[in-house]
Amino acid sequence: AFQGKEKFHKTVRFAQFYFIDAFILLCCGAEFHLLSFHLDTTKDDLKRYKQRSVCKLVQKFPMASTMEITSLSAVNDFYSYIVLTAGSNRALEVFDLNAGCSTAVIPEVHTRSVHQICQNKGSSFSTQQPEAYNLFMTTAAGDGIKLWDLRTLR
After folding, report:
1. What is the pLDDT of residue 62?
2. Which position has the higher pLDDT, 107 or 55?
3. Burial of 75 (0-12, 13-18, 19+ CB in 10 A)
């Protein structure tokens, strides 16, 4: 395990690998952090206590008008620049990490805060039309499941 020099101002709620394990995404308060990392796996008995693994902040992405991110989804199985976040303000925000910014906000996605977002990552057991990768689902306690299309945001 290793830790970067950065201290987080709030509890880290979600963390996952991103972009085929090239980065780490984690949520802290109303923003998510994109981190790069390098794990040093060399063995040296004389320097075994010296930490040579590195974790660096690439960029912070704040979610608009919310107190806390309640859910985050990003595909790690293939190259995708899209990161979806949901906040305590019941909104869903779409980020394009290739452009480095938010591209859309959908207000009042559910009657309560979204507690899970699930993107279509495909399956090794079946083939899909390319358009199917634009689909994602959200769910909130007591409000069921909604299926969304990234192209129309409906």
Report:
1. 97
2. 107
3. buried
